[in-house]
From TrEMBL:
Substrate binds at residues 321, 358, 362, 390, 418. It comes from Microcystis aeruginosa (strain NIES-843 / IAM M-2473). One of its GO terms (biological process) is lysine biosynthetic process via diaminopimelate. Specifically catalyzes the decarboxylation of meso-diaminopimelate (meso-DAP) to L-lysine. The lineage of its organism: Bacteria, Bacillati, Cyanobacteriota, Cyanophyceae, Oscillatoriophycideae. Belongs to the Orn/Lys/Arg decarboxylase class-II family. LysA subfamily. The gene is lysA. This is Diaminopimelate decarboxylase. Pathway: Amino-acid biosynthesis; L-lysine biosynthesis via DAP pathway; L-lysine from DL-2,6-diaminopimelate: step 1/1.
Length: 467
């Protein structure tokens, strides 16, 4: 197992300097994080406090080195541990934008998308970087006809979730009888993981995928409709998973179904095991490294195939959180302080649930530091409150930090996954900007919304106008 023991500075704040051997999902900070001679947090060679002065706050800061390192560890891991061919695709719902799509594609990954909007973003990025033949897999439990048409037009592989979708695809295939539509079938494996119920997707009581008792009927339907080209099977058991056994169990279940499909005459050649590897949000979290997860999955799939006498399929994994989460932090400016004697001290920041809805939605926990006081002693326990008109708008409850003052820069760690992608304009707040940093250079990848942006889609009917 790779060593990830963090270094500790005088205040007890933990940070990690960049080391090639580290697995990004096991670190609290981005790999390039360090404390500079101004006692400020530095990421990608850029002082975080200077970034806030330049770009404002709240501000998402993406470390390019961390993201690229995670991509490479996945690719290299499968090349090392899986005896057949493999493919890594980025679960872009974690954070889908032009710049991140470009980085991931340049590292050799494909894409998992769940809407026409995500497809459009990925295609635009690929066009701008002049990269073709990048595989795109289209997920979703209620894809519209328009979305399916758009995906088919742009050569996406459709991961079919239900009977209605199969029927719609057959109808759409009639418009192109000479080119069967490539699909994977998503099946519900009935495997439970110890994660939040909202991010468990493999158990039987799930809105995703065909139930196991439907498998033979689904196979027969596909065989009866040559307009569908069934390339393989897919299953996903959840997110933020630390256990390896469920993934090993999944390999056996999928291999049984794969063999059944082959025996019934389906030309199966791809096996998608989903993603779900967790990350370290707190010091107490202990996820497997990327390589350990890849090794466990690869060996389990290889063993399951060997035991059933089937050729190694193209093994596909679709990591999201473990690629992007640790690569990003969110910087806020500290504002109001409210002390309630013998109860709690609240520290308010200039963002909250609109830029990070995970604490109020999933009860998610995070670690934070004061970026301009990295070596100061942690003196008090405070609760980090957002600025929204909502009592539940709490980013972090009861965290130990140095004494803060208005204007200090608070940095919440590991905010790359499901923060910007789930951000909203609640209370009519503009969404924050995002920058990507490397070698002391910071580039804007998402502009900060302004007040005019908030009204861009608004329409006032003439009958309501005073004019």
């Amino acid at each position: 197992m790779l060593s990830t023991e963090p270094k500790i500075n005088n205040s007890g704040q933990k940070y990690l300097a960049y080391q090639d051997c580290l697995s990004p999902n096991q670190t609290l900070f981005p790999l390039t994080a360090k404390v500079n001679n101004r006692d400020c947090l530095e990421i990608g060679g850029c002082d975080v406090t200077t970034l806030v002065e330049r770009f404002g706050s709240p501000l998402y800061i993406v470390d390019e080195v961390t993201l690229r390192t995670a991509c490479r560890q996945y690719l290299q891991g499968f090349q090392t541990h899986y005896p057949g061919e493999s493919r890594v695709i980025y679960a872009s719902k974690a954070w889908n934008c032009l710049a991140l799509s470009a980085v991931v594609a340049r590292e050799g990954l494909g894409f998992d998308v769940v809407s026409a909007g995500e497809i459009h973003t990925v295609l635009t990025a690929l066009d701008q970087i002049k990269k073709t033949d990048v595989p795109i897999y289209f997920h979703g439990n209620n894809k519209s006809i328009a979305e399916l048409e758009y995906a088919i037009e742009h050569n996406c592989i459709i991961i079919v979730d239900n009977w209605l979708e199969l029927e719609n695809l057959v109808k759409l295939g009639e418009n192109r009888p000479d080119t069967p539509i490539p699909i994977l079938l998503r099946l519900t494996p009935g495997i439970e993981c110890h994660t939040h119920e909202y991010i468990r997707t493999g158990h039987l009581d799930s809105k995703f995928g065909f139930d196991p008792h439907q498998i033979e009927a689904v196979f027969d339907y596909v065989l009866a409709h040559p307009l569908l080209n069934c390339l393989g099977l897919h299953a996903h058991i959840g997110s933020q998973i630390f256990e390896r056994q469920p993934h090993q169990d999944l390999a056996a279940v999928l291999a049984d179904w794969f063999k059944l499909g082959l025996e019934r005459g389906l030309p199966l050649e791809q096996l998608n095991v989903g993603g779900g590897l967790g990350i370290r949000y707190l010091e107490s979290d202990d996820p497997p490294s990327i390589e350990e997860w890849v090794q466990a999955v690869s060996l389990a799939v290889a063993k399951a195939c060997q035991e059933r006498g089937i050729a190694y399929p193209l093994l596909i994994a679709e990591p999201g959180r473990s690629l992007i989460a640790t690569a990003c932090v969110t910087a806020y400016t500290v504002g109001n302080r409210k002390e309630i004697p013998e109860i709690r001290t609240y520290i308010a920041v200039d963002g909250g649930m609109s830029d990070n809805p995970r604490p109020i939605t999933y009860q998610s926990v995070y670690r934070a530091v004061v970026a301009n006081k990295m070596s100061q002693e942690c003196q008090e326990v405070v609760t980090i409150a957002g600025k929204h008109c909502e009592s539940g708008d709490i980013l972090i409850k009861d965290i130990t930090l140095p004494k803060t003052n208005p204007g200090d820069i608070l940095v919440v760690l590991a905010t790359g996954a499901y923060n910007y992608s789930m951000a909203s304009n609640y209370n009519r707040l503009p969404r924050p900007a995002a920058v990507i940093v490397q070698n002391g250079e910071a580039n804007l990848i998402l502009e900060r919304e302004n007040l005019a942006d908030l009204l861009r889609q608004d329409r006032l009917p003439n009958r309501l106008s005073l004019i």
